[in-house]
Amino acid sequence: MSARRKPSVWFAAGVVWLASATYAQAQPQQLDSLKDVFAKLYSCWRPPPASRASPMDITVVVSFNREGAILGQPRITFESENASDNDRIAYRIAVMETLQRCTPLPFTEGLGGAVAGRPFAVTFRSRKRPPKPDEKRAWLIQKIL
Asked: 40: which residues sit within 8 A by CB, 6+ positions away?
């Protein structure tokens, strides 16, 4: 190969590499495992701010079709028992917004065929603050006899 052609070959290789990197970024990351599905759903989770609702746990059961769109109606199957009605409504809205934000999920062909129509139970947890102790526990105090 002549000295004149080497720079053009390197330039062409660089252009092809940049074009493929741009195309890969434009395409959503394909989900190939159940772990990827849950990670994607959790990445879309935006709990209500603490000023609007107290932290709580909520579980939704949802099914998807082969293309990753929601199949049927998602159902809330668990909510923290000590939550108020306003907290429950705020978290239900947050769950539905999460599902709208994330779907359709970009399943690979194999995963789409495997999970189509099967229910997923997804639990969204907010960080709960531990209660402050009202008293000191006797077993925490070191006493030498």
From this structure: 31, 102, 105
| Sign of the four-CA dihedral 51, 52, 56, 57 | negative
CB 84 within 8 A of CB 54: yes
Q: What is the pLDDT of residue 7?
A: 58
φ/ψ bin of 74: left (φ > 0), alpha (ψ from -120 to 50), beta (otherwise): beta
Supply the pTM of this predicted model.
0.66
Residues of the chain above pLDDT 70, percent: 68
Residue 22's Cβ-count burial label (10 Å; 0-12, 13-18, 19+) is exposed
Distance CA 16, CA 33 (A): 30
Q: What is the rounded average pLDDT of the residues 131-144?
A: 58
The encoded tokens of residue 117 equal 């129509």
Give the integer Cα–Cα distance in Å for 114 and 33: 10
- Tell me the C-alpha distance between 26 and 4, whole Å: 34
